[in-house]
Amino acid sequence: MYEKLISSIGGKTTYGSGFFYIFKVSLFYSLRNIRRSYVRTSFTIFSISLIICLYTISGRIGASFAEQLKQVTNQDGIDIIIQSRYALSPTSSYISNKTIQKILKKEGIKSSEDLIIKRKKINKDFSAFLIGTANVDQVAEKINLSLVEGQSYIKKGEILIADQLAKGLGLQVGDSLRLYEDKKFKIVGTYETWINVFNIGIFVTQEELQEILGIDNGKNILFLSLKNQKNIKTFINEINKEFSFLKAMASKNFSKSLEGMNTILYLMNALSIITLILTLAIMINTFIIAINERKKEIGILQAIGWTKKMIHILFTTESVILSLMGSLIGFFISFPILYIIKENQSIMSIYFPNTMNFGILFEVIAIAIFVGVISVILPLYNASKVNIVRVLKDE
After folding, report:
1. H or E segment at 177?
2. Which residue in 8, 90, 7, 15 sits closest to 306, CA to CA?
């Protein structure tokens, strides 16, 4: 049977002296074995696809969140960002109005913008970021906010709400939303933006948000634009020295300073390593079983002239095919899963990308090939110790 298999491909009688000829034989033989071991093949592909699906989604979460923060803070008009020194995020920061006024009296400042931003539970299913600003239009320009319906100008007792959040709550322009005890706010407009964090946001006047949160004249974060950008480093050092309880930084470094952002990136890196280990473990286990069951076949192949190198290529080809199949299925499954999660309108949706990036496909393919090549080394090493004559006799 094996002599026929070898000689039938390419019409050659040789046992395969060239690499590509050996690869053709290995490919044919591998596909036959994949079809033959249907149950084990299906389980292996299913397991790998789940792991790669998780890797794909999690990888895009970290990358997308970092990209959004960088695009916001690296825009023209924002040179320096100031928050509390030990704040893990802007929502936990606090800068008194007195301190802000002292900073704004310094020379070299072209313009400034301060924000109040806090996360608040709207009901048992939804949370939102309450955003207080003195000038909604100025902030809207920075985050590419586009009005969906109504108006962007708000006054006391009015709010501008993200269209995505409004739909989730079943609200529209003209409706009221309770944000604080018995106080209701009228929705005067809805908006959307490419920054997911703000797609679950509610803009409120600063005075009312300070009342809701109980922070008299306090802000969370301060953005500065300087007249001369060459003075950014000097200005930052001056602020950090004079106000030891504050942390001033260049806008391009803001995303790196966020504890939450760093935690997400660390988790993504850890998950990448775990993904690799789990995928390797599954493939190694699969081929330990497969090679143990096919010792007779290996013995016959060696008996008719196959070298250890040829057998290694055969099983490596089979391993790479299995790994690629599982990885590609997992990658494409991540698309509908991502869509379903985002449509759920949960607070976690702010970390999810608006679209999947096909650039990660190359990472998935690289992982699949690496796993396929490495996973057969140990099983084949153990199989190489087997005595051919004894195997053929026992089988």
Report:
1. strand 176-180
2. 15
| DSSP letters for 202-230 | EEE-HHHHHHHHT-TTEESEEEEEES-GG
Burial of 170 (0-12, 13-18, 19+ CB in 10 A): exposed
345-374: average pLDDT: 72
Mean pLDDT calculated for residue range 361-380 = 87
The better pLDDT of the pair 212, 5 is held by 212
Q: Is the pLDDT of residue 4 over 50?
A: no
Region of 99 on the Ramachandran plot (φ > 0 left; ψ -120 to 50 alpha; else beta): alpha
pLDDT beyond 70 at 362: yes
Q: What is the pLDDT of residue 214?
A: 75
CA angle 80, 105, 212 (to 5 degrees): 70
Q: What is the DSSP string of 121-173?
A: E-SSS-EEEEEEES-HHHHHHHTT-EEEEE-S---TTEEEEEHHHHHHHT--T
Which run of H or of E encompasses 249? Answer: strand 246-250
Radius of gyration of the chain measured on its C-alpha atoms: 30
The per-residue pLDDT for 265 is 66
Indicate the residue type of 307: T
Q: Where are the domains of the chain?
A: 2-66+262-394, 86-244
Task: Give mean pLDDT, residues 112-118.
Answer: 87
| Alpha-carbon span 35 to 37, nearest angstrom | 6
**How far apart are the C-alpha atoms of 364 and 352, rounded to whole Å?**
19
CA distance linking residue 120 with residue 114, whole number of Å:
19
